[in-house]
Request: fold
Amino acid sequence: MKKIIYKSLVCAGALSLLMLPSCNYEEINTNPYEMTEEMAIMDGVGVGALITTMERFVFPVGTQADRTDMINQYQTAYLLSADGWSGYIAEANTWGEGMNNLSYYLMDDWVSSTYRNSYTELLSPWKKIKESCEETGNMAPYALAQILKISGWHKTLESFGPIPYTHAGEMALVIPFDSEKDVYNAMFADLQDAIAELMPLIEQGGTVVPEFDAVYAGDARKWVKYANSLMLRLAMRLREVDETTSKQWVGTALNHPVGVMTAADDAAQMSTGAGYVFVNNIAYCAQNYGEARACTSMYAYLNGYQDPRLAAYMMTSESDEALTGYDGKKYAPVPPGAPKSHTKDKYGDYSLPNMTSSTPTYWMKASEVYFLRAEAALYWSEFGDAASLYQQGIEMSFQENGVSANINGYLSSNNRPQAVSIGGYSAGAPTTATPAFEGSQEQKLEKIMIQKWIAMYPNGQEAWTEWRRTGYPKLNPIDEGSASADVPTNTGILRMVYPLSFSQSSEDAANLQTAISMLGGQDIPTARLWWDCD
Reply:
């Protein structure tokens, strides 16, 4: 609310000149041409704008008007960590003379960026939406805010471990951390409540803040499908550590009358919407910073399988060191990690990810959901036929990427991932697994996870999490000589350490120590999270 400075003059002459009975300072000092916070709440503008803000921080995305601010936020929070650790993106640049996240030396400012962008930036708008909805009695926007909160916060939980959840947003000097188990249980309950809140809108044909929703334009049915799919993702996370809870929530998601994502246009993504045109962060870093490049791990699988998604995922290269792909085109993928010798001069003309500024930033695709269902069916037959769902996942991924192929020929081939040797780096074939859905239960799980990993590209955060949970797919190792001695190359980063700022006061330090005790007493990158049973 803007204030008009001439308060004293107006009030001093109010009785004699205007014959006013009293002087209302707030009314006098309110700009009549500017919407107040109360008006915004009544009109839904304030809550709607906060929904847009939350959506922009599930993964940080910006517009041309934001210049490079949001791009840099994504770069330090995800691109230079999970996108690399997942085997999706490699780097043509180096930071800290090769001693950075990608070579397993965790940098505090980058780790802080991950926490800030996946948790802190969502907290304030979520809290304001909650307060506004409780005041107005219209809880549908809050249901949407709950889904968005969980979309971001589960990444924080799966990057660091225990987080403040059940007491988040309360007025207290120190907000306690919750155990991972307690957070998952709270997220399931919150998703269930949010879905129940949105169901009447579906039945009435209503929408939720459509002008401000950049994902689904207020389509309540789409949001419920996504929320059920998110519930399924989180439920499968617990399959090995808490089978009873996992199976319970898998059933809740799959048996819901609206169901989960099944079509390509069900995807939760940010590209255009709510009056914005968003910029793809990875494409910008590749094309303008000369950094992000295709990774050898993805090339090993796609070229070995003669997979039609190869050209859809990576651009060709004119480098003298480029390899000839199965399709006759030249590709030059970059090895994972960040050895000191890696420079833009060395990898500048290697293969870029095949993305443009307008490529969507995906939170979840329908293909991922088919593979989640395939895994569930592999262990619990009441949830469907694993082989059929596996095939549907591959077919959906082909559709999502605009490629065509003989699916029966693809599934019956004996093709295997290949060894890669380029630019002085060599890695053997990561696995002997073929696309054919056959073998033992564990072999079938590996195939599901390989195809799921391929389909989720470039969502490195989710791929890194699932790689830790299952051990699949097997990835190319980083250069042994460049890695931190504290993190074995065959293990990799299993979690981020908490930011140093969490220990600024004695109260904060004590609170943090409680969280660390839930991790087994050590705040280290090789500590396994609760669900990491591989």
Summary: The chain is about 50% helix and 5% strand. The CA atoms of residues 305 and 415 lie 5 Å apart. The first helix runs from residue 7 to 12.
